[in-house]
Every structure is written in C-alpha cells, then in structure tokens.
Amino acid sequence: VPEGGEAVTTPNAAPEPSENSYIIRPNFKDKFKPSLVKEVIQDVVNEHLSNKTYDPDQAPAWCKAITEAVKERVKQLGMDRYKLAVNVVIGEQRGQGIKVGCRCFWDSDTDNYAQYFFMGETMFCLATAFGVFFY
User: Fold this and answer.
1) What pTM does this model have?
2) Which of 28, 69, 100, 127 has the fewest C-beta atoms lying within 10 Å of its C-beta?
C-alpha cells in the first residue's frame, strides 16, 4: 500500500481463485432435476421447430441454436455445480425408425439426464441434456 493509504490495483490482474468447497454431493434442492430440464428442452424445441419444414441445409444451424438455447435456459435453473452436455439430432421424417444410444460413466447418485423427442410432419428431433456434478 503506497503512502496515503490507498491500494493500487492492476487492471489486468488475474482474479483470485475461489476456495474449494469440498462438497462431494449436492444438496437435494441443488440436484439435477430431469423433469424441469425436460420442460425446458420441450419448450425450446417447440419454439424452434414447430412451424418449420425439414431443410437439410438448415438442420445443422437449428441443432446449434437449440443446443445453445437449452444450455442457457438450464443454467437459469440454478444447478451451478453441474457441467452440462446437450446433444440434438434432427432428421427427415419419412416413416423410418430411429435408435439413438449413449454410454456414460458417471455417479448415479448425482448425475442424470433429460430428453425430449419431437415429431413433426417432415422432421424429427431428439434433444438430450446431461447433467454431471462437478466435484
């Protein structure tokens, strides 16, 4: 501290690291809630795709927009200690079946997922959000 008693701050100084909380399990109120996340996914997918016709050139952009919107809206639910991974698949609906598989290595006490399947006249969409507790 220089003379005069005022502290000098450096404008580009690195922020101080936050202290480790040593929390190894989330409180019940802070757990990943699949039912709430599914509602978010359903709202986002319906907002983005309800009045659209399948377009293979636009599908990648739609997937990205839905993914980003789901991540932002799930973050607003307040599950701060969770890492989110969102996967969105859009395809043309021609009456075919689809099987999508996933394998994860996680803690079944803290980690979870939610998914929503949208079926339109010309396309289908499967959106999945995974919440993995960050120790």
Assistant:
1) 0.80
2) 28
